[in-house]
Design a protein that fits this description.
The protein contains 3 helices and 2 strands. The protein is 42% helix and 4% strand. The chain folds into 2 domains: 63 residues, no CATH class; 48 residues, no CATH class. The protein has a two-stranded parallel sheet with strand order 1-2. The protein is mainly α.
């Protein structure tokens, strides 16, 4: 089975677009909306939720705000990013702990993968 979670796409400027390729291919935003669900994601997923119907739309992918070179973040956007980071941090720490234990298991069993 092909693991699409590691695929990246390059934009016109040559920068990677994160995990958006697999999510776009699998129509994650559409599936989340159909199930009346949302997901909190990092800034790599901003490009996936561009089909909303205005500021009051129910987003499928909840992401932070990204500053541009000529458009710094407002204090409200910074506060929103801070609140999202506080929600995401425990989950990211859980992923890190899981990866650490997985590595230790491979060392103990001698699994070369």
């Amino acid at each position: 089975m092909h693991d699409r979670s590691r695929e990246t796409a390059a934009g016109a400027d040559g920068r990677s677009q994160g995990g958006g390729t697999a999510c776009r291919h699998d129509k994650l935003s559409t599936r989340l909306r159909a199930a009346s669900l949302s997901a909190i994601a990092d800034l790599g997923f901003i490009v996936l939720d561009d089909d909303d119907d205005g500021p009051d739309a129910d987003p499928a992918m909840i992401t932070g705000y990204k500053a541009a070179r000529n458009r710094p973040l407002t204090s409200g956007q910074k506060l929103s990013n801070k609140a999202l980071a506080a929600v995401r941090a425990p989950v990211e720490h859980g992923f890190a702990h899981r990866k650490n234990w997985r590595v230790l298991g491979k060392v103990r069993t001698g699994d070369p993968r």
